[in-house]
Amino acid sequence: MKIKRTERVFTMAEKRIVNDVTATGLRNINNLILVGIMMAVGVVLRLCAGFLALGNMHPNFLIATYCLSILMIRPNFKEAAIIGFISGAISQIGTSMPWLGLLSETFGAVVMAALVLVPMPKAVKPLVTTLITTLASGFAFVGLAAVTYANPMPLAQFVSMATVSVVTAVLNCVIVSILSIPVGGMMRR
After folding, report:
1. Looking at the domain assignment, is residue 9 inside a domain?
2. Which of 24, 27, 105, 134 is within CB 3.0–4.6 Å of 87 for a Cys-Cys bond?
3. Cβ atoms < 10 Å from Cβ of 126
4. 20 falls within a domain
5. pLDDT digit string (tens) for 89-142?
6. Is the link from the previous residue into 182 a cis peptide, with omega within 30 of 0?
């Protein structure tokens, strides 16, 4: 009598790897909605900014909201420019120097997108990136104003506009630093 020998072959299923990748940029619908909400909040706060003034200066909530949006969704440079351009278009409401915001806000948003890529401690990133971005946008605005509206710009006017840019930058970086904690937590859900 012959005994049949059978071999059992066990095959292992391939190991599944799940990557927890956060979608970046405007191609993700949640990110697009976040940017829309942030811009809407920026508009409302801009129109009601009188309640939060330091002297005669107040935060530029549109810059603060696009800084926070860009910090959270990490768009590419083209998408950041679109966010900045939309912010600049919104800033045309009630401005005394039309069209300058289109360029200065677009420039500021691209600067923010570049700064988000720079490695730095997570705790200071909102503070540093928003401060530099607001200064870049503010001084781009002042420079454009000097070239287009007040050529040559009197020194007193330049100092006044530069002071407003610096105070606005400080206020914006405090706002974004505070808001980045709950918004970042919401984005991780």
Report:
1. no
2. 105
3. 25
4. no
5. 998 887 888 899 999 999 999 999 999 999 999 999 999 999 999 999 999 999
6. no
Give the position of tokens 């971005």: 133
Burial of 51 (0-12, 13-18, 19+ CB in 10 A): exposed
Instruction: Provide, for the chain, the percentages of residues in helix, strand and coil under a 3-state DSSP scheme, each rounded to the nearest 5.
Output: 65, 0, 35
Domain containing residue 68: 29-187
**Is 18 within a domain?**
no
Question: Would residue 98 count as lying in a domain?
Answer: yes
Give per-residue pLDDT as tens, 24-68.
888 889 899 999 999 999 888 887 866 666 666 778 899 999 999
CATH number at residue 120: 1.10.1760
Return the axis-axis angle of helices 61-73 and 77-90, rounded to nearest 10°: 160
Count of domains forming the chain: 1
Decide if 169 contacts 135 (C-beta within 8 A): yes
Nearest to 82 by CA among 106, 65, 100, 114: 106
